[in-house]
Design a protein that fits this description.
The chain is about 40% helix and about 25% strand. By secondary structure, it is α+β, with helices and mostly antiparallel strands. The longest helix is centred in the C-terminal third of the chain and has 20 residues.
Length: about 325
C-alpha cells in the first residue's frame, strides 16, 4: 500500500504543477498540498516523475529551485484517434454513469463533450436516434447519487487526496441508527452502482466500509493521517462476496443440474471450488467475509440452490423462505 500512497502523492504533485501559473519550490508544494510526508519525499517524488518521463523543468531563482510543467505539456495532446475509436468511446459513456458526482466523472464527461464536438453533426444525430451499436448495449445503473451524496463524494475526494480525517454522522441500516464517527478515509470504491468509502473508523477501531449515501454532516478536519504500510486494499476486499465485510465463513451450496452450467461458466469469487456429480448437479464451496450478500445471492437462485453449510446460514434462509410462504399464502 506504501507504493499506492506514493503514486497518489505524485499524482497530487503533478496536478498542482499543472494548475499553478508559476513554478513552485518543493517547500511551496509541501505547504500548498498540506502533505503528511516530509519535504524530502516531495523532492524524491519530483525526481521519480522526471525519471518516468514527465515533462518537468527546473529554474533556479535567487538560489531556490522552482519546478513547473513544460509549456507544451499544458496543451491538449495531439492523439490521432480513428473515427470509429471516437464513436466507440462516446457510446461507452453510459457505463460511467455510476460515477456521477465524482471528479473522475467530470473529466470523462468533458472528454465525451469534446468527442461529440468532433463528430459530424449529421452522423451524431444518427447515433442518438439509433442508440448504441447493435452488438453492445448497456443497462443504466439504479445507484445514482443525490445532491447531498455528490457533495459528500467531493469532500471525501479532497480529504483522501490531502490525507485528512473526517468527522461524520453515519446511518447504519442494520441498526437503523445514526452515530458520530471520526474516520481516516483511505479510498472510494465502486460496487454495483453504489459508491463506498473505505477507511479506518476510530469508533470501531478497524477499517470499515461506508455507503456514501448514508453519510451526513461530513466535515473535513485539519488533522492528517497515514495509511499503514501493511494495509493492502486488494487483500482487504478479496474475501468479500460483494462489498460487505464480516467473519470469514466457509459456505457450501448445492446447485441442481438446471442451473449448474450457469454457475460453472463464471468466476463468482476467487476462492470458489466446484465439485461435479453424475446427475449434473454441483457442490459449490467458497470462503467469504460475512454471509449477508451471499445469502441474497443464493435466494436469487430460488429452489435451484440449497445451502449445505454453515448451519446458521441454512437456518436464516429457511426462516426467510417460511415467512415468504406465509405471506404469499395469505394472498390466497
Amino acid at each position: 500500500m506504501a507504493r499506492g500512497n506514493q503514486m497518489a502523492r505524485q499524482w497530487t504533485v503533478i496536478q498542482a504543477l499543472l494548475t499553478a501559473r508559476t513554478g513552485k519550490t518543493v517547500g511551496e508544494l509541501h505547504q500548498m498540498l498540506e502533505l503528511s510526508c516530509d519535504k524530502r519525499s516531495v523532492y524524491r517524488d519530483i525526481q521519480d516523475l522526471e525519471a518516468a518521463g514527465f515533462p518537468l523543468c527546473c529554474e533556479t531563482i535567487n538560489g531556490a529551485q522552482y519546478w513547473s510543467v513544460m509549456e507544451h505539456a499544458r496543451n491538449p495532446l495531439a492523439v490521432p484517434f480513428k473515427v470509429e475509436e471516437l464513436i466507440a468511446l462516446y457510446l461507452s459513456r453510459d457505463r460511467v454513469s455510476d460515477l456521477k458526482g465524482t471528479s473522475i466523472y467530470k473529466e470523462l464527461n468533458s472528454l465525451f463533450t469534446k468527442i461529440k464536438a468532433g463528430i459530424h453533426e449529421s452522423f451524431y444525430d444518427y447515433l442518438e436516434q439509433s442508440g448504441p451499436v447493435p452488438m453492445l448495449s448497456f443497462k443504466h445503473s439504479y445507484g445514482q447519487l443525490d445532491a447531498n451524496a455528490q457533495v459528500v463524494v467531493n469532500q471525501l475526494e479532497g480529504a483522501i487526496q490531502s490525507k485528512r480525517f473526517v468527522d461524520m454522522a453515519y446511518y447504519t441500516m442494520s441498526r437503523k441508527a445514526e452515530t458520530q464517527r471520526r474516520v481516516a478515509p483511505y479510498t472510494l470504491w465502486l460496487s454495483e452502482g453504489e459508491i463506498y468509502m473505505i477507511g479506518y473508523c476510530e469508533l470501531r477501531l478497524e477499517v470499515r466500509i461506508f455507503n456514501v449515501k448514508r453519510i451526513h454532516q461530513l466535515i473535513v478536519l485539519p488533522e492528517t493521517y497515514t495509511i499503514p504500510d501493511d494495509f493492502n486494499l486488494d487483500e482487504f476486499m478479496e474475501a468479500s462476496f460483494g462489498i460487505y465485510q464480516g467473519v470469514e465463513t466457509q459456505v457450501k451450496i448445492r446447485f441442481d443440474s438446471e442451473v449448474a452450467n450457469l454457475i460453472k461458466e463464471r468466476v463468482w469469487h476467487p476462492s470458489q471450488r466446484i465439485t461435479e456429480f453424475e446427475d449434473g448437479s454441483i457442490h459449490y464451496e467458497l470462503t467469504v467475509a460475512g454471509t449477508e450478500e451471499i445469502r441474497r445471492w443464493v435466494m436469487g437462485w430460488g429452489d435451484h440452490a440449497t445451502v449445505l453449510a454453515p448451519v446458521g446460514l441454512r437456518h436464516e434462509i429457511c426462516q426467510m423462505a417460511q415467512k415468504m410462504a406465509r405471506d404469499y399464502g395469505q394472498l390466497g
